[in-house]
Design a protein that fits this description.
51% of the residues lie in helices and 0% in strands. It is mostly helical and 250 residues long.
Amino acid sequence: MPISLLRVYRILLEHYGPQGWWPVARHAGEPGFDKNGYHPNIWRIPKTEEDRWEILTGAILTQNTSWKNVELALVALRAEGISAASDVLSLTESKLASLIRPSGYYNQKAKRLRSFAAWLNARPNPADPPARKELLSLVGIGPETADSMLLYAWNQPVFVVDLYTIRLLTRLSIVSTEEIPMQPIRRYEHVQKSILSRLSRSPVSSQERLRLYTEMHALIVRHAKEHCAARPKCAQCPLGRYCPSQSPSP
């Protein structure tokens, strides 16, 4: 019998502690925030519309790049005074591209960011969570980006799936590799549905569920980087005793 998802969550939380995702760099160094804007024990994020815009921007910029590169782009945007969708729309596309250059694919991302800014700017109330299908209809917004936005910027209890999640859950035999579709969007939806069907059995409130989804995604990313990489580092892995895929000790 595979380990349960809640057990995975509790083990990772005990091992790594709260992660404080999504980081909001504009609050870096403030009480409760570390030097990069992570906030392990603060849940009322975003605090302002400027915070929300930074999270939404990061969700687009982090596509196909590391967060370190995104941080550099966010610093450049902040130095230019860009803190809202309307600010982005005031820039030329070439200027925007130059500011977000560290994030890679900067010309493509500039188009996506301007398109997204125009959509958000036209909404009557940007604080109201949009429908998932509305986000997915926007240029350059796929399931992972849409769900990251809903979870971290609009505090909706949506579980974010990424390659780290799929890798960990298949190695733990929680999700069967034989059942996962090859087509990326179908694969995403299949794994997300499988996760939600398991977590929905747990008797937790909606607020607890939001914390669970927020923290579990962050913990899986942390664990993947430290242990469950493409080439796993199984020594001292906190999930080692539950992992059928664990590499033998040298």
